[in-house]
Backbone:
């Protein structure tokens, strides 16, 4: 190899390794989220607005890499939904009313960004139910909800605000006296 070519290669390597130089970024991970939102018709009678509000769990996590906002990728087809049998049991039991069952894929936000996806963006369009879903990634993966539910019949609006660390393929229950959420997060890349 000629000395001129060695110098050119060394200069190119130095530019690539220099701090602040743009490097190709790894593809952002895409996760699948599935939720069931259900009402407890008897649970909202005596509850005050904001009952069920939980402090955001920081869990000692930290952001890694560049800041990133949550990004919706697509709706999951019915064949990919895993909580259908649970939804059917909730509906058949009579004690709860299923409000929504939805699944989607998304890129998570950076931990601590407070970036989420609005319920209509993920396919949840239920009168009286609003808010957003937050999936955030730092050292760990966290799933949270900021939801407001206005039960029919004039009861006061109820709010659920909770964020917690989640593990793949495990059901997670977010509790409120008037309504609740059951969620599961999967990593389709690990199934390959």
Residues:
């Amino acid at each position: 190899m000629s000395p001129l070519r060695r110098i050119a290669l060394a200069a190119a390597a130095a530019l690539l390794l220099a701090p602040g130089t743009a490097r190709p970024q790894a593809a952002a991970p895409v996760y699948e989220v599935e939720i069931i939102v259900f009402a407890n018709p008897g649970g909202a009678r005596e509850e005050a607005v904001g009952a069920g509000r939980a402090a955001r769990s920081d869990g000692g996590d930290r952001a890694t890499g560049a800041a990133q906002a949550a990004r919706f990728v697509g709706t999951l087809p019915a064949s990919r939904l895993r909580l259908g049998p649970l939804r059917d049991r909730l509906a058949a039991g009579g004690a709860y009313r299923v409000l929504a069952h939805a699944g989607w894929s998304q890129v998570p936000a950076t931990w601590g960004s407070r970036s989420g996806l609005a319920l209509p963006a993920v396919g949840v369009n239920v009168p009286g139910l609003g808010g957003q879903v937050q999936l955030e990634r730092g050292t760990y993966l966290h799933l949270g909800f900021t939801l407001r539910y206005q039960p029919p019949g004039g009861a006061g609006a109820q709010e659920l605000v909770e964020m917690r660390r989640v593990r793949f393929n495990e059901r997670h229950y977010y509790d409120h006296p008037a309504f609740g959420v059951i969620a599961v997060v999967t990593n389709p890349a690990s199934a390959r």
